[in-house]
Amino acid sequence: MSSIHARGVRKSFGDLEVLRGVDLDVNPGEVLCIVGPSGSGKSTLLRCINLLITPDEGEIYLDNIALTDPHIRPEWVRQQIGMVFQQFNLFTHLSAKKNVMLALRHVKHLDRKKAEATAKAQLGRVGLADKLNAYPAQLSGGQQQRVAIARALAMDPKVILFDEPTSALDPESIQDVLAVMGRLGQEGMTMAVVTHEMGFAKEVADRVIFFDGGRVIEEGSPDEIFERAGHERTQSFMKKILR
Amino acid sequence: MDRQEDGIRSARPPAGDAPPTRRSTGPVPLPSAVRSGRPPTSAGVRPPWWTTSGFYIGLGVAGALAVFVALGRLGYYDIWFIVDNLSSGFGPLILSLEFTTYSFVIGISFAFGLGLVRAHPPKVGKHLARKGTRGRFSFLWRWPLYGFATGFVATVRGTPFLVQMNIVAISLAYVYPQFTFLGWNQFCWFGLLALTINTTGYQAEVFRGGIQSVEAGQIEGAKAVGLTRTQTFFRITLPQTFRLITLPLTNEWISNFKTATILSALTVEEVYYWSKETIAINDVHPIEGFVMLAIFYLLINVTLSRVVTYIEKVRRIPGLGTPIPEVSYTKRVLRGELPARARG
């Protein structure tokens, strides 16, 4: 089990300061939910953690390794940290099975048989054993997102980051995807989840962070954040969202 | 019972003083605007003959043939001369095809590189800002390369081929007036060079468009699973690019085929030269020569685009590239998928 520690992460795009000194800890085996209004920098923070975006300042550690060290290969970092996107980002030209296999073959350098076995196992784990040869366009949103989760899982990551995984889905698919994520959390996967699904956060999260204006405003157990928020900004946000 | 009548009847308010609520569990009638549309062909309901695509295609072909024959009967040209002399154009036609294809294939390799450069414009200050990273000074070669590619494409697209050909081929032919190689004289070789340069410029833009059309999410997804930039390019971007550019690249081949006629100005004996010099001037049958030329070009280009459409269809990946066109009712009847007569 691994952990992530971010210290003083800053990032600006031009004049827009998106992250203003973020300290974040994802402890081993913990499901951390990050909630907050749109445009508050939640996604940017996740992207900084697996170096899809290079932070301007600050350090990010995976266990004891400083990921922000320029001598570390970003590909290695991304291999350790899985990522699931809002828009799935499955490879359009590959079937579900090959989507999962691609990185196994060419990043982990497994042989075809092993990669195929892993892909089948992972797709079975997310309930898509019958969709091995379907192309992403032939799958529903929820199925695509589960393939994306299988793709991340297959790399055997130490941590998985979820960037609003259910925001582009219909209510029924949301439940399928959340079920898979909940199961992962119970199995002890370290997860950081940016989400607007307050029900999921309450049920599955070990800890919740309220994020606004590029800063962590408040953190605590789901109960503390949703019911007894201390900060004024958190209270007003929760009031709107938990009507 | 007729579907439409049923709809109209149940849409009327019920007689008597009963409240206008709908109790039956039958199908809800469509609003008249929807109902008046063409019946859905996929349901196997036969549309009126004058709405089928087959009728209009037939009409078009029959009309064109009628005009063709009528002009012949009027003495505008001699149809039998065309029939007798068509085969004498095969040799020059094959030379034309050779020019087109050689220049196209050589062009692809250069255009691929140019398109790649053009698809990734260097960003001001971005590379120097990344301290201690590999490729920090890449702006030193990126800017000149991008400038060259852009200038090349702009020049090729911005000037007529005739001018390009005169500049390239005629100047070279002055320098090497007795150049022969593999049975081709200096005009053939330098003309081929000019044609290659021309098609390279256009193809470069096709490649650039294709590479840039690959969604950013695809690249992000590839990065997120740990693929390097090179791997991402060869495993994700390139396979998708090829599906996206099939059609524009076919267009470019056809365009290149037609541009090749201009090589006749260099006395290259390709098919336009044949129709002009041999048929029109020597045999004094000007119209027939060009009609034969049109027949050649039309047959080859239509066949090619049909073949490419077919390949696209059978090699298609759902959600990528050109969508499959809807199959017309006429075609589905011919394939035996639908009854020739309406049901009921």
Structural commentary:
The complex is a heterodimer of chains A (243) and B (344). In chain A, 38% of the residues lie in helices and 25% in strands. Chain A starts with a strand and ends with a helix. Chain A is built from nine helices and ten strands. Chain A has a six-stranded mixed beta sheet with strand order 6-7-8-3-9-10, with helices on both faces. A four-stranded antiparallel beta sheet of chain A has the order 2-1-4-5, with helices on one face. Chain A has 243 residues and is α/β, with parallel strands linked by helices. With 344 residues, chain B is mainly α. In chain B, 65% of the residues lie in helices and 0% in strands. In chain B, helix 5 runs antiparallel to helix 7, helix 5 (90-119) crosses helix 9 (186-213) and helix 12 (271-282) packs antiparallel against helix 13. The longest helix of chain B is centred in the last third of the chain and has 31 residues, at 229-259. The N and C termini of chain B lie close together (9 Å). Residues 1-14 of chain B have low confidence and may be disordered. Chains A and B meet through helix 2, helix 3 and helix 5 of A and helix 10 and helix 11 of B.
Sequence-ordered SSE layout with sheet pairings:
The complex is a heterodimer of chains A (243) and B (344).
Chain A: E1 4-13, E2 16-26, E3 31-35, H1 42-49, E4 57-62, E5 65-66, H2 74-80, E6 81-84, H3 96-106, H4 112-125, H5 141-154, E7 159-163, H6 171-186, E8 190-194, H7 198-204, E9 207-212, E10 215-220, H8 222-226, H9 232-241
Parallel strand pairs in A: 3-8, 3-9, 6-7, 7-8
Antiparallel strand pairs in A: 1-2, 1-4, 4-5, 9-10
Helix pairs in contact in A: 3-4, 3-5, 4-5, 5-6
Chain B: H1 3-11, H2 32-35, H3 53-73, H4 79-85, H5 90-119, H6 126-129, H7 139-158, H8 161-175, H9 186-213, H10 216-224, H11 229-259, H12 271-282, H13 286-314, H14 329-334
Helix pairs in contact in B: 5-7, 5-9, 5-12, 7-9, 8-9, 9-11, 10-11, 11-13, 12-13
